[in-house]
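Hey, I'm writing a tutorial for new members on how sequence and structure tokens pair up, and I'd like a real worked example in the thread rather than a made-up one. If someone can provide the structure for the chain below, I'll link this post from the tutorial.
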Amino acid sequence: MVDNSELPFRMLCRRYGAEAAYTPMLHSRIFSENEKYRRMEFTTCKEDHPLFVQFCANDPDILLEAAKVVEPYCDYVDINLGCPQRIARRGNYGLPHGQPPSHQIPRPEPLDKPPYQKKIQADWDAIKAVKDALKIPVLANGNIRHMGDVYSCLDHTGADGVLSADSLLENPALFAGFRTMEWKEEEDGDGGLDQADLVVEYLKLCEQYPVPWRMVRSHVHKMLGDWFRMHPQVREELNAQSKLTFEWLHDMVKRLKELGGRIPLYQKGGAEERIMANGHAAYNS
């Protein structure tokens, strides 16, 4: 996740069940050439394993050079072949890079086209086809909103692990069995944890492992989105801060809690779920 899976956030996700994690997407050429970029955008620690380092690249030699730099500090190097953004098309990496028609799974157009929200869902049947065709480990990615989706995806695809990205930004405790209100089921109880608690944990990790403030600001917005909708004046105060400090952010979380309307995260019966399904692991990407 660009700017969103930096070291403090990875460590928070690991604390709540993620068994491996990806760095943000790094630009292989800039990473190879620019020491300041490397220092600012790639940090790790001895507890940050297993670790995937992800690069965008369109030149194999430059990718190899970047990979050699991170080799002592990671377990895997990943090349981004899935980014659909315009900047990826301009740079000839991500989804547009190396994607001739012969490399794609053909999908016939149905006569009755599904609604847009259905069309953008991940195709687990396609993931299953890839898994059935290969002898190497396959990690499934897409449509993971809670642990129920993790189990369903593993059962459907036979994949060796499951990735989650956007859902973790809102709920970094997903892999520990916690659900947001949106996905709460009848038997779920208050898990004794909420997103404000997670923000406090995240801020403490940022103090331990410093990262650019733009990343901190982004995570605070995403984790506290529901809280800010209840108290938009606090969000406006955050947006008005041109320069953030940890003291100010901790005070902001305290004020949010004092305003009331706590939004808990939920677990089945309020108890922890196991994070393994059929011997397969869950990951953060």
